[in-house]
Amino acid sequence: MEYIKSTSNLRACHCLVIILFAVNSAVGQTSRQEKMEKLNFMIDEWVGISTTYQNDTIAKQVPAFEKISYRLDKNLITIDLQS
User: Fold this and answer.
1) Largest CA distance in the chain
2) Which whole-number Å values give the CA distances from 6 to 2, 10, 21, 76, in the listed order?
3) 8 A C-beta contact, residue 43 and residue 71
4) Using an 8 Å Cβ cutoff, are 54 and 64 in contact?
5) pLDDT (tens digit, 0 to 9) for every residue of the chain, 83 residues total?
6) DSSP of 67-83, one letter per residue?
7) CB–CB of 49/61 below 8 Å?
8) pTM score, two decimals?
């Protein structure tokens, strides 16, 4: 009988730990997503000029094409640059 009580208590503790972990993950995920949303203005395709300097003078200028996008359910931002 004592074995059944301890097993039951152990299961209850495991369930509590799992629930706390799930709640903590959900709250942390929401906080991270809110912070990533603040960078939403950057997500787009951009065109500019890439400049190379040599001895404090401009050596070369070429067009630069950037695509800034979210990855992994908005947990990561990538910058793809072609120039």
Assistant:
1) 85
2) 6, 6, 22, 44
3) no
4) no
5) 444 445 566 676 666 677 766 666 655 557 777 888 888 888 889 998 889 999 988 999 999 899 989 888 777 888 888 87
6) EEEEETTTTEEEEEEE-
7) yes
8) 0.52
The total number of residues shown for the chain amounts to 83
Residue type at 60?
K
- Find the helix or strand (DSSP H, E) in which 28 lies: helix 2-37
The candidate with the shortest Cα–Cα distance to 78, out of 42, 48, 50, is 42
> CB under 8 Å to 44, separation ≥6 — which residues?
68
Q: Phi-psi region for residue 4, left (φ > 0), alpha (ψ -120 to 50) or beta?
A: alpha
Residue indicated by tokens 């003078």: 57
Structural tokens at position 37: 């949303």
